[in-house]
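Dear colleague,

Following up on Tuesday's group meeting, I ran the structure prediction for the two-component complex that the binding team flagged. I've pasted the input sequences exactly as they went in, so you can double-check that nothing got truncated or mislabelled along the way. The structure tokens for the whole assembly follow below. Feel free to forward this to whoever is handling the docking comparison.

Inputs:
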Amino acid sequence: MKQIQDFKFSGYKWLNYSTYILTLKTDESVAGLEPGNFAELQIPDAPGVFLRRPFSILDVDHKKNTLSFYIKIVGKGTRQLGKLKLGDKVSVIYPLGNSFTVNGTQKALLVGGGSGVAPFLLLGRKLKKHGVDVTFLIGARTKEDVLLTEEFEKLGKVLVTTEDGTMGQTGLVTQHSAFTDDFTFDKIYTCGPDPMMKAVARIAKEKGIDCEASLENMMACGIGACLCCVTETIHGNKRVCTEGPVFNTKELVWLI
Amino acid sequence: MVDLNVHIGDLQLKNPVGTASGTFGFGEEYADFMDLNKLGAIYVKGLTAKHREGNPYPRMAETSSGMLNAVGLQNKGVDYFISNIWPRIKHYDTEIIPNVNGSTVEEYIEVTEKLNEVEGINAIELNISCPNVKEGGMAFGVSCPSAMAVTEAVRNVFDKTLIVKLSPNVTDITEIAKGVEDMGADAVSLVNTFLAMAIDVKTRRPVLSTVTGGLSGPAIKPIALRMVWQVYHAIKIPVIGMGGIMNATDAIEFMLAGATAIQIGTANFIDPQVTLKIMDGLVSYCEEQNISKISDLTGQLRNI
């Protein structure tokens, strides 16, 4: 069940100059959630930021009653959210949206670009629990933007591409040799910039395997009421906040 | 105990707080967050005769104190509403008011005739003010003769309470209000969104797929308030006020300006429980001011 809950700022872990993990804590218990779910955060004291902001849930701790979010500063809202002080309240609506499906998967490739890796921690854990062989493929502009690899290494193999060649293979994620060498994955999960996800989805289509993409369209309400965040699917416009954010790329019109 | 009842046409609403069409889905979307039975009314998402896909994405843009939308009346059509959605929501103990749209007068009539047959639907809100559709919508609401023509046509096929939702994108909103009153509207609701636009300077393109969209939120509140006040003094039928109401103080301002009831729209996106908070705030205000009936607030703006 969706809920609105007041959390308190608990701490930051800055990963680089523009990316941080925000941890929020509540006195109540944190609702159960699935990999792929997101939350709408109301950003306190942010003039000019009118609406809530949707973020993937990076991690949840049901013992400490915390939620954490992987946030890259891209504008006023995400900048202000990086300036919270101990005790600041943040209203959170969650868990929102659908989740990744894991049934039937045996060997999964998780392709993330930039902050698109955010939902992969929970997804990787669930896949591992289901006995799935997990490989992460992370694409970034440069070495400093390749983050969370230590966490991912606990769950599976980690492959990296950087555009400037400072880490892993040089180029875009879709140019990684994982796609050309003996390719035995039976499922791709992807999250990141649209052009990257489209390219990944095309590869999945060529290889004849399923691909699930988590979209991040602009949203107003996040709960299915306003119909602002729709994406075009073969079954008509669907709400990214409710029927998504995870879609099988076969359903998405942008693939065709 | 403050008496919160208000009357709109033949309706007796248990309190003046309703939710604006297009911002509250069919109510169900908010059921996890609040008791829908507490609302005075739910004005559900706009309906057309046939399924509409709405406009392409992007459909929204944030502004510093509001937002633009260009959804374009995405809905599955009135038949789907009556057979699939209405049975799920009709048990709620609140007035559920469909919002009727059309590209032509005939379409407005078709949708209305179907809703007229549904037991439990006691009112409709005739939307002649949607700024986001190519045909019909706001086109009907920005000229007095066409607003009157569509109101008259719908009045002839609807036996219950008829509310007409007005566009603010006009030179003189009181003329349109008077026109629809003359054609038999039982109430007017105002205002719908203001035609507006946003530009992405990096790409030098419009943010919205439709170039223009409708502005809502606190940015429009003072203009909406002025229009409610003007219309209240121009007509005799009740006014339902809306436009950027974010809290109880805003709601009281609209009532003092002349609104019998109010609708909460964009604020629902930020706080899905805001309607309940506004209701509590209205009660507190009445208690502090020794007002026993909330309907006594309507139009009680004092002289300067």
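Residues 107-255 of chain A form a domain with the Rossmann fold fold (CATH 3.40.50.80).

Cheers,
M.
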